[in-house]
Amino acid sequence: MGLRAYAALLLFLSACAAPTPGLKKPVARSQRLANLQRAAALPWKDEGRCVVQEASHPWPLLVDRCFQALDREKVQFRDPTGRCAVASAGAAAVGIGICILAAPEIVLGAVILTGAVVVAVAIQEALDTHELSGIRPDDERPVLQTEPSSTTALPKRRPKPQPSGQNWPPLPPSSVERERNPKCTPQRVPHLGGDELHNTCADRVPQNSFRGWDVLVNAKHFDALQLRARVLWEIKTDNFDTYSLYLQRTVPEQQVPELRRERDLARACGFDFRVGVRSAAHKAALELADPDLDGVIVVMDWC
């Protein structure tokens, strides 16, 4: 990029990043989380590592430093207002994109995603770390003044693949409940036992926040945790289809009481509960043994 085009680009960045009258500046500790949440809606070629590294800086600076890591095959930029047009033809595509992303509010239709976006791994892990830090969502929202903004914010998109049978999570416990029961704070703990297949299936639970670890909640070792969805998992790796008819009848009857107990422990802390099994027959047998488990059992297509 030539010197003249680069100077123009910096000018556009400054203009686009000017704060709007309707939005107060978030508190300093909210900036990193707000940047991560905003970046989570975009596709990144580097799994979001640049975003995580630069997330503590103002959003325009993050965009300037990480734009090259954006997967531009999955995103298109439009400039309906014309304010981000760049005079230099050689810098136009990059300049418009950076200017649009650097704006404190993105005009509706300015950013078009051409494919599904899954939250980048590094960004997801950083968001999970914020969840564990105990910062409440109410502390992280920028405060809006009563005057309406002159532009419309782009809705945040965060599509996440979830296994079949997964319902919306329950409301998390209040801060008072968390303080009253510190056992509800998830803790990383080593996997129990040496069952390699079991540990592999647990680690591969989609959006598992504690890969490589068990999760201690309410004095119980759970196999996986989807922190942002607030779902705790128990994994069963029985090769159920090879069992005799006797075992196919008795094994689910033996497993159901423990699954009920684990479900109750999870729900007592505001988490939902899922059980991953390897066989549709195993799923059906557990649901037959306890109809209340319908919707809780998931056949693991990842294991």
Automatic annotation (TrEMBL):
InterPro entries: DUF6310 (IPR046277). The keyword Cell division does not apply. This is DUF6310 domain-containing protein. Residues 177-303 form the DUF6310 domain. Residues 134-192 are annotated as: Disordered. Residues 1-17 form the signal peptide. The keyword Nucleotidyltransferase does not apply. Pfam families: DUF6310.
